[in-house]
Specification:
About 0% of the residues lie in helices and about 50% in strands. The chain is an all-beta fold. The radius of gyration is 39 Å and the shape is extended. The strands form 21 sheets. Strands 1, 4, 5, 7, 8, 9, 12 and 16 form an eight-stranded antiparallel sheet that branches. Strands 49, 52, 53, 55, 56, 57, 58 and 62 form an eight-stranded antiparallel sheet that branches. Strands 50, 51, 54, 59, 60, 61, 63 and 64 form an eight-stranded antiparallel sheet that branches.
Length: about 950
């Protein structure tokens, strides 16, 4: 895509269609009306580069009929007609092709790629590669998805191979077209199959005849959802349509010649083809389309909205009509639609027909049939409200309705109207009398209403947001309490005001200033601290539970690792190597009390196959800046039963992220040994590792909204049972973010340092250099020390541009400094925890002096004279941007008439010519960095 096609003369109308096609190929939505349809135009079957060509016919050398392609280096051919996933038969080849070398027995190229990409998102694709060896009939075959390594079953050992060449699966195919067995080249086409349900690609290993025999002899190239093949699980095509492109590499000649003889859904017998795929219509109905409710005679019924998308052209316009018939197949009469509804005046059938067509006239229709019948009257009851008055800006909770029909609720005051959602609360921003109205309406237009009034008073100060507090705190830890703003009303006008925050804990009650570190203190493990935000008369109180990380024992403070697990419905019992976590109720869960660096988040545990009576183990990562935002993956346990004996004959584990579910082995099978499992979250992907590694991308937050990444660099990790049987559900927890969980959990893990942005590199003297921000975290210790120091080349401490001495200063901000000398400036980050574990990270900023010195004469030099006269070379002043004058080396030379260079000694400032001609005087200066400056002038001697 993106390369220009050699298109001859076209009509203006056809050129418009081609322009639209280009827009569609770039996934740019475009809305067409039916008047735009170009029934006499056709989409070109393919697009090739400017230096390439393709034509339909027969290759005379090999007798191969199809699209004959001549592909120039760096170009490709793209088939514009789309392949519908629904048209792909797993038992029939998706594509057949054949290399057609320009000279029988010689190779034009050695590598051929077939890429199948999602029509609306080309970043979703898989590629099958054929690579031929020099002067051999053996070709290796491999495949990859979304840019991962090429994969296949290794030809020699039968194991799965990841890499580019050599060990991939092989077939007997020659890019030269010549075989030692004498079989004709045309009988050995390249065949590729694809099974969209299994997400597997196949190839023809034996090159048998077409039909069933070829299918029976096909071999798997790659299973795109098997963790043994792929590390990142491939989720498949999303749009339902696929675009094919073919490219080549390792050219020996100027052109790669090959023929494509079959592609599913594409006719290769014509010079151009009509796009025959129809738009897809989606009806957005307020009811189940498989169970359409009855309409009521004498009432009305809604006309559901509908949209249509064509995979080639994007969004298309949808037309709709409603017709009435007394019987399902009876004579139809048109029914008018007003304000999105139509009257159901008579008993019978109302047929809604939606139609859409693309610019080429490909049309599709879908219908929804509505039958009249008995319909209950709408009922609605609302309990008396507990709140009749409220202050402006406060959150008002209203009673939930009880109805046999959908209910909408709105609050109205004057011209202000608020639609109230399923949480049945709203925040009035206007004083006065508000009317809260409940309206229950069924699809037939029958309604019932209930309402009440709410008096909202003016003035006052309120909080509208929640502070993003840590879900758990550590007694003795360091925390920055988030700022919070309140809204002070003067009449109906609100002004933001900053709130003060105070805390109440074992140390007493006190105000925590903005930017001040808060260190919570509690009397015992599990106690809570109270955090209060105040602004005027508004007050918001929250409690956060705290853990006690250490307990005094024989005068020594001993780490209590079990206290880091805060939650409910679980029990934790330590041993020397791990800790058993047992379910005390069906959904027991814990959250680790110490936030972690996002890049190092992981949990390691071992299954206990005799104690695996649960439906799933859930792993959740919470955003430290907003703990309400979380993502979860699961390891689900699934039993397979022997229906005849009524017993379990196997148990499988599935790794599940959203809708993706991948077989992860027999982790919980009581007939297999316990398994060691690692689950981590890296670069937006959940990673599973239990003797094999694969990953699945997180696409949505737990609330169903698209996953957009975490707001900061710190997160919390939690783990939960799902459907557990107490007493029969446990696992052995070994590590959390590399920290050992055991009865003797000395903190032997140094803090983790996470750099931000681009750091190090080159800089010039006098130009500003950047000391990047960094973060540090320890799996256990909340009291780590973290600082950054910058040394100049001579070892002295550097001062930032804003006057800060950069010695063990906080790395949680960016610093700028201006180097005044060349050399290596070292930037050293040091983090240490309370147990003496240290982590250091150092990078270098190389400051280069690439400015040459400047030479200036003290006077005008003598440029003419006679043989035998002394020519005085003026004194020079040499300056440099870095080197001091005494550290700059100055040399003087004279090039004589004969071309010989003569050095002028340091104690001399003149020369005496002995011959007529032109002499050239050179003054050369070298600074400490080796930069050279040269100043010259000529002397004419008569």
């Amino acid at each position: 895509m993106g390369q220009k096609s050699k298109i001859g003369q076209r009509t203006t109308r056809a050129m418009l269609v081609l322009l639209v096609l280009c827009l569609a190929m770039c996934v740019m939505p475009y809305v067409f009306s039916q008047s735009d349809a170009a029934e006499d135009a056709a989409v070109p079957a393919y697009t090739v580069g400017q230096k390439s060509s393709a034509k339909y016919g027969t290759n005379e050398t090999f007798g191969i009929t199809g699209l004959q392609i001549a592909l120039a280096p760096q170009e490709s051919i793209t088939f514009n007609t789309l392949i519908a996933l629904a048209d792909i038969d797993p038992a029939a080849p998706l594509i057949e092709a054949n290399v057609t070398p320009s000279l029988r027995g010689a190779q034009d190229f050695r590598r051929l790629f077939f890429t199948f990409a999602d029509a609306l998102n080309p970043d979703i694709f898989f590629t099958v590669q054929y690579r031929n060896w020099e002067n051999e009939s053996k070709t290796i075959v491999s495949a990859m998805a979304n840019g991962q390594d090429y994969m296949s079953v290794e030809w020699y050992t039968g194991k799965i191979f990841h890499g580019k060449d050599e060990w991939h699966t092989t077939c007997q195919y020659a890019f030269s077209g010549v075989y030692t067995d004498g079989r004709d080249h045309a009988d050995r086409p390249i065949r590729i199959w694809y099974d969209d349900q299994a997400k597997q690609a196949y190839y023809d290993k034996q090159y048998t005849d077409k039909g069933v025999a070829a299918k029976d002899n096909r071999k798997v190239i790659c299973d795109f959802v098997d963790p043994n093949f792929v590390s990142d699980i491939w989720t498949g095509f999303k749009s339902g349509y696929v675009r094919l492109s073919v490219s080549a590499e390792e050219y020996i000649g100027d052109t790669a010649y090959f023929a494509v003889t079959h592609v599913t859904g594409i006719d290769l017998t014509k010079d151009s083809v009509y796009e025959q795929h129809k738009p897809v219509i989606t009806v957005d109905a307020p009811f189940d389309l498989d169970n359409v409710p009855f309409a009521k005679v004498g009432a009305t019924f809604p006309l559901p909205a509908a949209t249509a998308v064509d995979a080639q052209f994007g969004v298309c316009e949808v037309a709709s009509k409603v017709e009435f018939a007394q019987t399902p197949n009876g004579e139809k009469t048109a029914v008018a639609v007003q304000n999105g509804r139509f009257a159901t005046a008579n008993a019978g059938y109302y047929i809604i027909t939606y139609s859409a067509r693309d610019p080429l006239g490909n049309q599709t229709e879908t219908t929804v049939t509505v039958q009249t019948g008995d319909v209950d009257d709408v009922t609605l009851t609302v309990a008396p409200p507990e709140v009749r008055t409220a202050a402006i800006g406060t959150l008002v909770e209203i009673p939930a309705p009880n109805s046999n029909a959908p209910v909408t609720v709105k609050a109205v005051c004057g011209e202000q109207e608020i639609m109230i959602g399923d949480d049945y609360s709203f925040r009035p921003e206007k004083s006065g009398e508000w009317t809260v109205t409940y309206t229950a309406e069924d699809v037939c237009g029958q309604t019932q209403t209930e309402s009440y009034t709410l008096t909202v008073t003016a003035g006052g100060t309120v909080f509208k947001d929640e502070p993003a507090l840590a879900p758990v705190m550590i007694s003795g830890g360091r925390y920055y309490l988030p700022e919070l703003r309140a809204y002070a009303y003067s009449g109906d006008v609100a002004t933001e005001v900053e709130a003060t925050v105070s805390v109440k804990d074992l140390s007493g009650e006190r105000v925590v200033d903005k930017g001040e570190v808060y260190i919570p203190r509690v009397a015992k493990h599990g106690d809570s601290v109270e955090i209060v935000y105040k602004a005027g008369e508004a007050e918001l109180k929250r409690e956060v539970r705290c853990i006690m990380p250490f307990v005094a024992n024989d005068g020594r403070m001993r780490l209590q690792i079990e206290n880091y697990f805060m939650g409910e419905g679980f029990e934790l019992k330590k041993d020397d190597f791990s800790a058993e976590v047992a379910a005390a109720d069906a959904n027991g869960q814990w959250i680790f009390a110490k936030e972690q660096i996002l890049s190092g988040i992981r949990v390691q545990f071992s299954t206990i196959t005799k104690k695996s009576e649960f439906d799933a183990l859930c792993f959740t990562v919470f955003d430290a800046t907003d703990p309400e935002r979380s993502i979860t993956c699961k390891i689900e346990r699934e039993k397979e039963y022997d229906a005849y004996r009524g017993t379990v004959y196997s148990e499988n584990a599935y790794f599940t992220v959203g809708k993706m579910r991948i077989l992860a082995g027999s982790l919980f099978d009581p007939n297999t040994p316990n398994s060691n499992v690692v689950v981590s979250f890296e670069n937006g992907k959940w990673v599973f590792d239990a003797a094999k590694t694969f990953s699945i991308a997180a696409e949505r937050w737990d609330d169903g909204t698209p996953f957009t990444g975490f707001g900061g660099n710190s997160v919390y990790i939690g783990m939960a049972f799902e459907g557990a049987t107490p007493g029969k559900a446990s696992y052995m927890l070994t590590e959390v973010s590399n920290q050992l969980i055991s009865a003797n959990p000395a903190d032997r893990i140094a803090p983790v340092i996470e750099m931000q942005g681009v750091y190090g590199g080159m800089c010039e003297v006098g130009r500003s250099a950047t000391v990047q921000k960094a973060f540090a975290s320890d799996a256990l210790d909340p009291m780590i020390s973290f600082g950054v120091t910058v040394h100049a080349p001579d070892g002295s401490i550097v001062t930032s541009n804003d006057g800060i001495r950069l010695e063990n200063v906080s790395p949680e901000r960016i610093y700028e400094f201006t180097p005044d000398r060349f050399g290596m400036y070292s930037v050293e980050y040091m983090a240490s925890d309370s147990f003496g574990n240290e982590q250091k990270f150092v990078y270098i900023i190389s400051v280069l002096d690439n400015v040459a010195p400047e030479i200036a004469f003290s006077g005008d030099p003598m440029k003419t004279g006679k043989v035998g006269e002394a020519f005085i070379i003026p004194d020079v002043t040499v300056t440099d941007n870095v080197s001091a004058a005494e550290n700059i080396t100055v040399s003087r030379y004279v090039r004589t008439v004969s071309g010989r260079m003569t050095t002028i000694g340091a104690k001399s400032n003149s020369f005496i010519p002995s011959r007529k001609g032109v002499y050239t005087v050179y003054v050369i200066a070298h600074d400490e960095a080796g930069n050279v400056a040269v100043k010259t002038y000529d002397v004419t001697v008569a």
